[in-house]
Amino acid sequence: MMLTKEIYLDYAATTPVDHQVLEVMLPFFASSFGNPSSLHGFGRDARDAVENARVQVAGLINARTDEIIFTSGGTEGNNAAVKGTAVAMRGKGNHIIVSRVEHSSVYEPCMFMKMLGFDVTFLEVDTSGTVDPEDVRRAITPKTILISVMHANNEFGTVQPIEDVGRIAREYGIFFHVDMVQTFGHQHIDVSRLPVDLASFSAHKLYGPKGVGGLYARTGTKIHPIILGGHQENGQRASTHNVPGIVGFGKAAEIAARTMDEETATLKAMRDRLTEGLYHALKPVQFNGHPVKRLPGNVHISLPDVRGDLLLERLAQRGIACSAGSACSAGTGSSRILGALGISPVIAANSLRFSLGRHTTPEDIDYVIKVSGEIVREMRRKT
Fold first, then answer.
1. Residue 62 CB coordination number (10 Å)
2. I need a surface site. Which of 58, 266, 369, 377 has the fewest CB within 10 A?
C-alpha cells in the first residue's frame, strides 16, 4: 500500500537527530577519533570535545560540570541512581520509596533490590497519575535512603510535584532521584534551586543521538558506580567514552536551551487542538493524565469499544505513527502504569499515545483528527 502522507507522532519514544547535531558528530567518527583517556594529541582533542559537551549539558539545567556523568541513556542513568544509591547507603538503611507509575528502568531495579533484601514502598497515585507529596512523607521510615519520583510520565504525560517531594526529602535528609528523561530539554530545570540530588536524562528524546545520556549527581550525593573496569567519569562510570554521541548530546542541549520556550508554546497549542479535535471525532473517548499539569506534546486516550492494537495498525496504514505506550514496554502492554490510575486492563489495551514534536504541523494535527475519526467510526460500525 502506497502511503500518500506520513506523520510521526511518537516523539516520546524517540526523536530524529537534528541536522546541526549530526554535523558536529561526524568528524568524531573518523578524523577526530581519539580516545579521551589517551594522553597524546588525538586523545586530548577528544577529551576537549567531551568536556565542552559537559558544559553544554550542565548549562541546560544549571548544574556544575563535575556533577554530570555521561551514560548510555536514561535506562542506565535510572539503574545507576537506584542501585548505586542503594549500595552506597546500605550502611544507613535499606528502604526505597518510589511511585507506582515509574518507567520500567526505575521500577525493575527497585524490584531487583527488593530481591536482594531491600524494602520498597510503591506509592499510589490519583486518577490523574499524580503522587501526593504527603503520601511520601507518611511512607518515610528511619531506614529510608532513597526517594524516586519521575518528573513527567512517559505514557500519560502527567507532570509530578517534584519540588514538593524534594523539600520533604531534604527535610528528612534522604536522597531524591528524578527521572527527567521526558522533560530534559523540554522544560526549564534549575538544579541549583530544585531540591533534587540525582536526575537522569537521555539525548535521543531531544533530537540527539541514541545510546548516550547523562546522570546528574549533586555534589555530596553518595552513589556507587554500577559499571566497573575503568576510571572514566571521575571513577563513576567505566567504559570508553562515546565521543560522537556525547558531542551530539551537547549540541542538542545547546539547541534546546535556545528553542525551548518557543517550542513549548507551539506544542501546547497543537496538543490542545488535537485534544479538542479527537474529543469531537472519537467520542466516547477518555483522556488520561492530568488535564493541565502535563507534558506539552502528550495526548493519551482510551476508547471503551475499539481495540487499541487494531486502531494502531489502521492508523499506520494511513501514514500515522503513534504508539500504544512506552516503547520500552512494547509487547508487554502498559497495564501496570495505567492500572495505577484505576484504568481496567481491557480499557488499557484500548489506549493510544500521541506525542508531538519539533516537526509536527497544524496540518498534521488536522489530518490525524480527520483520519482517526473515519477509522473509529468504521470500526464501530463493524462491531
1. 13
2. 377
328 is catalytic: yes
The domain made up of 19-255 is a member of CATH 3.40.640.10: yes
Give 12's contacts (C-beta < 8 A, 6+ positions apart): 154, 155, 182, 205, 295, 297, 298, 323, 326, 353, 355
Mean pLDDT, residues 139-143 taken together:
98
Prediction pTM value? 0.95
Domains 7-16+260-381 and 19-255 share a fold: no
User: CB-hemisphere CA count at 13 Å for 169?
Assistant: 25
Q: Where are the domains of the chain?
A: 7-16+260-381, 19-255
Half-sphere exposure of 88 (CA within 13 A, CB side): 18
Amino acid 206 reads L
Residue 313: count other Cβ atoms within 10 Å of its Cβ. Answer: 11
Annotated catalytic residue: which of 22, 139, 226, 328? 328
Helix axes 308-317, 362-381, angle to 10 degrees: 130
Burial of 158 (0-12, 13-18, 19+ CB in 10 A): buried
